[in-house]
Amino acid sequence: xxxxxxxxxxxxxxxxxxxxxxxxxxxxxxxxxxxxxxxxxxxxxxxxxxxxxxxxxxxxxxxxxxxxxxxxxxxxxxxxxxxxxxxxxxxxxxxxxxxxxxxxxxxxx
Length: 109
Fold this sequence. Notes:
Strand content: 15-25%
Helix content: under 10%
CATH class: Mainly Beta
Radius of gyration: 13 Å
Structural class: mainly beta
CATH topology: Tumour Suppressor Smad4
Number of domains: 1
Distance between the termini: 15 Å
């Protein structure tokens, strides 16, 4: 079962050396566990997605250059598709940005 992505969920770039949390700014009212839910508009470099350490392609700072989130939910918040733990975003430099682990806490029965 796919999980929705929320503020502070860790992202990784397969060409970067360290993960970074996503910062949700695309909407301000839909929350899960008190954290804003991420949408396809949360892709601005250095605002929503911080650098991923050192880029293995450029051999310098891994500044994200997200193109467009793929594998999003069919559901929308304010006309923007929700991000899932299976969502990924190609980087213009050549890497692939994806989710390390969703930040949600589910209670198992």
